Amino acid sequence: MNNMNTARDHLRHEILVGGVSNTIFNGLIAWLLLKSGPALAWGGEHSFAVDVFATGLLLPFIVALIVIPLQRGKLNKGKLQAIDLGTASRIQSLANRLPASTFKSALVFGLFGLCVIAPLTLLGFYLVGVVEIAPLNYSIFKGIWAGLMAAVLVVPMVLIALRDPGTSH
Q1: 167 located within any domain
Q2: What is residue 130's DSSP assignment?
Q3: 49 within some domain
Q4: Positive or negative torsion for Cα 26, 30, 33, 35
Q5: Which segments of the chain does DSSP mark as H helices, in order?
Q6: Considering its fold, how many domains does the chain have in total?
Q7: 36 belongs to a structural domain
Q8: Residue 116: which domain range?
Q9: Which of 12, 17, 44, 55 is 20 to 30 A removed from 150 (C-alpha atoms)?
Q10: Which CB contacts under 8 angstroms, 24+ apart, belong to 90-94?
């Protein structure tokens, strides 16, 4: 994608699709699984902390396993062109440092979710004094949280998939 506007339009589209689809699916799945259960607490059988850590690992890992191959397939078929936002772009610089392997990149994204996003999320819960959460409220939170996580992480995922094959990593 030589045209920077086209590249930015494509990234906006992927942010929207990834964000909205993950908001709907994760919120709905959480609601279907939790609607008849008790409030979620920090620990125990109905722990929101365990769910946040599990989702923090699995969501970015799975999204990367889907997004990167789909984008590469479109690139290989000529439906998309390589994207390079330039040396001034921090996100491009980060994407260029991540592994070319889909599985390795997915693992990096999953570990980032587990080790950075999940703890920061739970720190937020702690700081605002959350002790327990009703299933409906947690389902709404989880949908929005998962959608935002996917929307943010899809950008480097797309940049990994659509980078020039000659780019060092």
Answers
A1: no
A2: -
A3: yes
A4: negative
A5: 4-34, 48-76, 90-97, 102-112, 118-127, 135-161
A6: 1
A7: yes
A8: 4-161
A9: 44
A10: 91/155, 91/156, 91/159, 92/159, 94/156
Reading the chain (169 residues) residue by residue, the pLDDT tens digits are: 446 678 889 999 999 999 999 999 999 999 999 999 999 999 999 999 999 999 999 999 999 999 999 999 999 998 988 988 888 989 999 999 999 999 999 999 999 999 999 999 999 999 999 999 999 999 999 999 999 999 999 999 999 999 876 654 4
Structure tokens at 62: 């799975």
The type of residue at 59 is L
Is 76 contained in some domain?
Answer: yes
User: CA of 56: how far to CAs of 2, 60, 108, 134, in Å?
Assistant: 34, 7, 12, 20
- Closest by CA to 151, choosing from 54, 55, 52, 67, is 67
